[in-house]
C-alpha cells in the first residue's frame, strides 16, 4: 500500500468515475485503474462496484476511503510544516533543468517568482540532459523541471513556451524567403563555442536538417554575435523571442519552421504548494502555448 494508491481511491470516490479521477490528477486512466486494482488485491477486498457508467463505494470501500482521507490529511499537514517559517526561512522549491535552459530559469523565471514569493527558497538542480531530468524527478530529488518536450509518459508536462529558430543574416545576403533549411549547407555561420550547451543545441538542429555550415566565428559572447553579423562575417541561428536588437540585420523564418517546445515537468505525485505556485506563475509568464497538459 502506498500514498499514490490512497489518493487514486479517494479521487475515484470523489469523482464517481476512474476517467474523471484520472483527469483531475493528471494521470493516465489505465494507470489509475491498475493502481486501484492492485490495492484491492493487496487488501483482499472490493472497494468499488459498477453503477451505470460510474462506480460506487462498497461498504468496506467507504471505510477504506474514510481512513485514507485521514491518512492523506495527516501527510498534507506534515508537508505543510516544511513551509512554516519557524526559523525565518520558509519553504524550499527544487527545480531541475538542463544547461541550455538554466539561463532562462535563473535569469528570468526565478528572479520574477522571488519578487512574488520571497519566503520560498528556490534551489536549482543541474542536470546534464533531458534523460537525467526525468531520472531526478522520478527519484524525488526535484519538485519540478524546466526541460525540452516531449518527455516520457510517466511524467506530466505543462507546455511553457514554443520558440522559433530563425536565421539572422547580413542585409546583403541573398537567400530565398522563407529559408529552406537546406540553404544552411555551406552557409557561413557565427556559432557558439564548441563544447557548450548552446553549441550543442545548434549542432543538433543542423544534424536534423542535414546541413554542414562553414563556421566563421565561434564564441559564447552572445552580446557580440549580432556585431559579427552586421559586419558581414556570417549569419546566425537563434531564437526569435530572444532577439533584443535587430537593427541592421535581416531576420528570416524557415520553411518548414524550426521550433523548440519547452515546458515545466513533474512526476505523478502531489506537488508541494510552492511548486504549484511556481507552475501557475510560469504558465502566466510563458503563455502556455498549447493551452493544455501533455502526458
Automatic annotation (TrEMBL):
The keyword DNA-binding applies. Residues 1-58 form the HTH lysR-type domain. SUPFAM superfamilies: Periplasmic binding protein-like II, Winged helix' DNA-binding domain. Keywords: DNA-binding, Transcription, Transcription regulation. It comes from the Bacteria. Belongs to the LysR transcriptional regulatory family. PANTHER family: HTH-TYPE TRANSCRIPTIONAL REGULATOR CYNR, TRANSCRIPTIONAL DUAL REGULATOR HCAR-RELATED. This is LysR family transcriptional regulator. It comes from Actinomadura napierensis.
Amino acid at each position: 500500500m502506498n500514498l499514490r494508491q490512497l489518493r487514486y481511491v479517494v479521487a475515484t470516490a470523489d469523482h464517481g468515475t476512474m476517467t474523471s479521477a484520472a483527469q483531475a490528477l493528471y494521470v493516465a486512466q489505465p494507470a489509475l485503474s491498475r493502481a486501484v486494482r492492485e490495492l484491492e488485491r493487496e487488501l483482499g477486498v472490493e472497494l468499488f462496484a459498477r453503477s451505470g457508467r460510474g462506480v460506487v463505494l462498497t461498504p468496506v470501500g467507504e471505510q477504506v476511503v474514510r481512513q485514507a482521507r485521514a491518512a492523506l490529511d495527516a501527510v498534507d499537514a506534515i508537508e505543510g510544516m516544511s513551509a512554516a517559517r519557524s526559523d525565518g526561512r520558509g519553504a524550499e522549491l527544487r527545480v531541475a533543468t538542463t544547461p541550455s535552459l538554466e539561463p532562462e530559469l535563473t535569469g528570468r523565471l526565478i528572479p520574477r517568482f522571488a519578487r512574488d514569493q520571497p519566503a520560498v527558497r528556490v534551489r536549482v538542480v543541474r542536470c546534464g540532459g533531458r534523460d537525467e531530468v526525468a531520472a531526478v524527478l522520478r527519484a524525488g530529488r526535484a519538485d519540478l523541471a524546466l526541460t525540452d518536450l516531449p518527455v516520457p509518459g510517466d511524467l506530466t508536462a505543462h507546455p511553457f513556451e514554443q520558440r522559433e529558430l530563425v536565421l539572422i543574416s547580413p542585409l546583403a545576403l541573398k537567400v530565398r524567403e522563407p529559408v529552406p533549411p537546406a540553404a544552411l549547407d555551406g552557409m557561413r555561420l557565427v556559432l557558439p563555442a564548441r563544447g557548450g550547451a548552446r553549441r550543442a543545441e545548434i549542432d543538433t538542429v543542423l544534424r536534423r536538417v542535414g546541413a554542414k555550415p562553414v563556421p566563421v566565428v565561434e564564441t559564447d559572447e552572445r552580446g557580440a554575435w549580432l556585431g559579427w553579423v552586421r559586419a558581414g562575417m556570417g549569419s546566425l541561428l537563434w531564437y526569435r523571442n530572444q532577439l533584443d536588437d535587430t537593427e541592421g540585420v535581416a531576420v528570416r523564418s524557415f520553411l518548414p519552421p524550426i521550433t523548440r517546445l519547452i515546458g515545466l515537468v513533474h512526476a505523478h505525485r502531489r506537488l508541494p504548494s510552492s511548486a504549484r505556485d511556481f507552475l501557475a506563475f510560469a504558465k502566466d509568464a510563458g503563455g502556455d502555448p498549447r493551452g493544455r497538459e501533455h502526458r
